[in-house]
Specification:
Blueprint: H1 42-50, H2 86-94, H3 112-121, E1 129-133, E2 139-143, E3 152-156, H4 171-179, H5 184-198, H6 205-209, H7 223-229, H8 235-256, H9 272-285, E4 287-289, E5 295-297, E6 306-307, E7 316-318, E8 323-327, E9 339-340, H10 347-354, E10 367-373, H11 381-390, E11 396-402, H12 408-418, H13 427-433, H14 447-475, H15 485-541
Parallel strand pairs: 6-9
Antiparallel strand pairs: 1-2, 3-8, 4-5, 7-8, 10-11
Helix pairs in contact: 1-8, 2-8, 5-9, 8-9, 11-13, 12-13, 12-14, 14-15
């Protein structure tokens, strides 16, 4: 599995800047590592390329904003867009998923030898790694011989990339999608299904046979499972949005294109289950190559590398060797699994796209989204709401908190939430500072209401902690009524992922709670000391 970088942008990979408590850094201080592997989080790309007129307000429970550029189709009278309703989404996502008739078990090595042989015959140079079963990631690439730190590996040539320009085994299908100007993501999803259904007549037969039949992805969780296991985490809402997007993508393609060409796109091949599979593959394996002008591609062999939170090396195209490479950031002994980084992602983001959660405390990039909301009882509710909307925000926002700090925008939102009517002239300035779209000064200070702002954040933090505690306490007695072994194994697996995620997110909230309580205690004890000094001076003058 490899990466498609996170929700920040469809074009570049970036991460939020953080500093240690009690300094609050700005969301606008972004780092753009040139070697990031590119999935700029798949749902972000999906929105920006496919849903130009989509009316979902994804910024309402989530902090990240989404852009919907215009999309014109050459043959279709209107653009492909999401036309699925909430009721349709719930109905579809609640059904048990079925496996596609191609690929292999996620931990299987049955097709590994055939894949390696095909790659070698197709231009992949001799490798120092081989596919094997591993402790982290089911299967991965393992060193065959000593590998030095700083050594370049892989060298996968462009002829082995799957891109939007790849040749179709069914030329008619490719021609139709090109005529409709279908964007890269849905085009690649359709391409994968088309090539998989072509079986041995496709040049990618050996590659597709080695892909997991059911990728680890939240796309395969039912709506009931998302509601049950992720009720405490904000990742639940993002997972629901992603499922909705994929269902909407398929429905639009079916209504706009597939139904008009049933001989080319038969429903027994191009259906919701096969699209769930193909998007699961794209979310977990598609990479963006900075040195190829940001081109997105599936790169066979390279996508067998697993993620490590300690790794700092990424995939990219090397112009001198004309292939996709990565440079090792440590030495490896024969038999050791070789790792890359999928990007600076939180545990929730890793679960969302790749279906795994690192061990507690192992991910230095881990974060949790803290929901904040204006109170409707606020005397200035309408004025504050107007200021927020002016800067692309709503009454409910989520801000990321790391174990080491939180963004300046969060503090600005808290200032706005507790500001009295006498500060109405400053509402616009504070709302602008709460948005990552604005470039104004973020480090605002309002000493008169700072204590109230910190208490507001603490209250929100403790409210979230209680939700996590409730889930974790109840998790032990969940699913005791399940008797089918297969269903029980699945639920135990999903529940463990959810427990691991909630434990890691609650850990960050506990740290924030401790810092906030200490800060408030120090402020209040300082005020008490000041009052005592003042009373003492007053007594002296008396």
């Amino acid at each position: 599995m490899i990466t498609v970088e996170n929700d920040q942008s469809p074009i570049r990979a970036s991460r939020l800047g953080f500093s240690s408590f009690p300094t609050f850094p700005s969301l606008s201080d972004k780092v753009i590592p040139s070697q990031f592997p590119a999935m700029a989080e798949a749902s972000r790309i999906l929105h920006s390329t496919l849903f130009p007129t989509l009316s979902l307000q994804l910024s309402k429970p989530c902090y990240n904003s989404h852009v919907y550029p215009s999309l014109s189709l050459k043959k279709a009278p209107r653009p492909v867009q999401c036309s699925v309703s909430t009721s349709e989404t719930k109905s579809t996502s609640s059904n048990a998923t079925q496996e596609v008739p191609w690929g292999c078990d996620i931990d299987s090595l049955e097709n590994a030898e055939a894949l390696q042989k095909w790659l070698s015959n197709s231009g992949l140079p001799p490798q120092k790694m081989a596919i094997d079963k591993v402790a982290v990631g089911e299967r991965g690439l393992v060193a065959l011989k000593n590998i030095r730190k700083g050594e370049k590996l892989l060298f996968v040539p462009p002829s082995l990339f799957i891109t939007a320009d790849s040749e179709w085994s069914s030329p008619e299908a490719g021609l139709v999608l090109k005529q409709y100007s279908v964007p890269d993501w849905p085009l690649l999803a359709t391409y994968l299904i088309s090539e998989a259904s072509a079986q041995k007549s496709s040049r990618w037969c050996n590659y597709i046979s080695a892909l997991p039949r059911q990728p680890y992805s939240l796309l395969y969780w039912t709506r009931a499972e998302l509601d049950r296991y992720l009720e405490a985490s904000q990742i639940r809402q993002r997972a629901i949005e992603r499922v909705t997007d994929v269902i909407g993508t398929y429905n639009d393609l079916r209504l706009r294109i597939f139904s008009k060409y049933p001989d080319i796109f038969p429903e027994e091949v191009f259906n919701m289950e096969t699209f769930r599979w193909s998007f699961g593959i794209l979310f977990s394996r598609l990479v963006r190559l900075p040195s190829m002008d940001g081109k997105v591609a599936l790169v066979p062999w390279a996508d067998m590398l697993n993620h490590s939170c300690e790794a700092e090396t990424f995939l990219d195209y090397d112009k001198s060797s004309q292939g996709v490479v990565f440079t090792t950031d440590r030495a490896y002994q024969p038999g050791e699994q070789v790792f890359i980084s999928y990007g600076k992602k939180s545990n929730g983001e890793l679960l969302l796209s790749y279906g795994f959660v690192p061990k507690e405390g192992a991910n230095p990039s881990d974060s949790v989204e803290l929901p904040l909301s204006l109170k409707k009882s606020d005397k200035c509710y309408k004025e504050k709401l107007e200021a927020l909307r002016k800067h692309g925000l709503s009454t409910s926002q989520c801000y990321p908190i790391q174990i080491t700090g939180w963004p300046l925008e969060l503090m600005a939102y808290a200032y706005l939430a507790v500001s009295p009517p006498s500060m109405s002239k400053q509402f616009d300035e504070i709302a602008a500072a709460a948005s990552n779209k604005s470039t104004i000064k973020k480090d605002l200070r309002y000493p008169d209401i700072e204590e109230k702002a910190l208490q507001f954040i603490l209250d929100s933090c403790e409210s979230s902690i209680s939700k996590y505690s409730k889930f974790l306490q109840a998790s032990g007695s969940m699913d005791l009524d399940v008797t089918t072994p297969k269903q029980l194994n699945r639920r135990v697996f999903l529940k463990q992922l959810a427990v691991d995620l909630c434990t890691s997110e609650q850990r960050i909230l506990f740290r924030a709670q401790y810092i906030l309580r200490r800060r408030l205690r120090d402020m209040r004890s300082g005020e008490l000391r000041a009052l005592r000094i003042f009373d003492g001076l007053r007594n002296i003058f008396k």
